[in-house]
Structure formats: structure tokens, C-alpha cells
């Protein structure tokens, strides 16, 4: 899959030239000409890299960088600020705003491409590490919670049957298996006194327990490769009659994310 790059810069021949150049280097490039659309694009596409120029009409680059990084979906997204000649103060402010780096405007497209390729390799490595960490967390959660039988492992077997009965293809079944492995990862946050309590939970303990789908969604959200299964993690305790949690969804409003 081609890396997705968001180019936040005012409309100009330079911007279009750079976009064309990067597309020719097998990058999927989207351009945004103001802060509002840059934030919206980041949310929609979870880019692998944001190149943020310093001349947008509605917002400064430091502030925009902060806005982008505030979204849990983009916590792992590298944002690079491009300025004509950044000084140490710019670099410090950029880092404080969550930018991966502050670059001077490149001398050529090839110069920029070299830097981008290095960053994309780093991003891929970070994603792989984060993904392994998430799966390791889920495994440890499962063994902590189920000393006798693997709860998630059982679930994988059930959802495979269910998915096949719905006519899901192999790609969707694979996503469904991953969702099953990770669905309870948010329980990692629960104290053992609640997680392993032998008797029924009291009202306060139940409230804390019922946060686990939202926490699970937050843990997985920064990973673009897990994007499709986020609704499964968040909504695995909803019920058709609306009595489930965390959103009390009812009937058809509980959507099949693989549809
Ligand atoms: Fe659960
Ligand atoms: Fe569960």
C-alpha cells in the first residue's frame, strides 16, 4: 500500500508541483489549503505523514500541529513543519507542539523526498512496534482474566463461524479475528479487585468495568491498521434492545463495520 501524505499548504504552483512529484514516487497525496480541512483530512485518512507549511490563512503551524496531535487517531502520525529558515526557537516550539521535526524549505523535491522516505521508514517501524505491544497487552490481559480457558481464543472460533455464515470473505474474517483478540484490551486498565472479583460487582465497580470498550478503542485508535475494528472494540457490549454499553445503541444502529 502506498504511504498516505497530507500536504497542508495554500494553493500554489509549487504545492501542485510537489504533489505531482510525490504521486509519481508512489505516494498517495492529499492537499489541504487551510487548518480546518487539514484537521478533517487527518481524522478521515490517518495519514502516514503530514507536511505542514507555515502560510495557512486561518491558523499558525504550531497551533495546527497541536490540533492534529490532539486527536487520538493521529497520536502516531508524524507531523513535520516546514519553515523558510527555522531557528532553534522554532525547533523547540515545534517539538512542544508535538511535531516530529521542523525542516527548512527544501532546496529541491529530491532533497525533500530523501527526508520523507527516512521518516516513512521510521513510521513503519513505530507502527510495527506499537502493534506488537498492543497484541502483547491483549495476550497478557487474556491470561490474567482467564486462568482456565482463553476467552479471546474461544471468541475467535465463534466469530469465524458467525462471519462465515454472513458470507464474509477472508480479508473480513481476518479483521474479525483481530477484533476478537483485541476486544477486551481496555480491561488492562481495571484493578484486579474488579477484574478478578469472584462475586457480582457493585454499582461503582460496574461503572468502572463498563469503561473498558472506550479505553480499548483509545488504545487501538492510533494504529491505522486497526482502524476498521475500532467499532467492534467500542461496541462489543451493545445489545439489540438498547440495554448495552457504552453508547446504549439499539437494533440496526449497531452497525456491521465490515459492510
Ligand atoms: Fe468486554
Ligand atoms: Fe470479552
Description:
This protein is α/β, with parallel strands linked by helices. Helix content is 51%, strand content 9%. It contains 11 helices and 5 strands, in the order βαβαβαβαβααααααα. The chain has helices spanning 13-24, 35-45, 61-70, 88-96, 109-145, 151-165, 170-182, 192-195, 203-209, 212-220, 230-235; strands spanning 4-8, 28-32, 49-53, 79-83, 101-104. A 5-stranded parallel beta sheet has the order 2-1-3-4-5, sandwiched between helices. α6 runs antiparallel to α7. The longest helix is centred in the middle third of the chain and has 37 residues, at 109-145. The radius of gyration is 22 Å and the shape is elongated. The two termini are 22 Å apart. The mean pLDDT is 93. Bound molecules: fe (ii) ion (2 copies).
Overall mean pLDDT: 93
Which strand-content bin applies to the residues?
5-15%
Structural class per helix/strand content? alpha/beta
Low-confidence stretches: none
Give the N-terminus to C-terminus distance in angstroms. Answer: 22 Å
Question: Secondary-structure element order, as H and E?
Answer: EHEHEHEHEHHHHHHH
CA radius of gyration: 22 Å
Order the strands across the largest sheet as they lie in space.
2-1-3-4-5
List bound small molecules: fe (ii) ion
The gross shape turns out to be: elongated
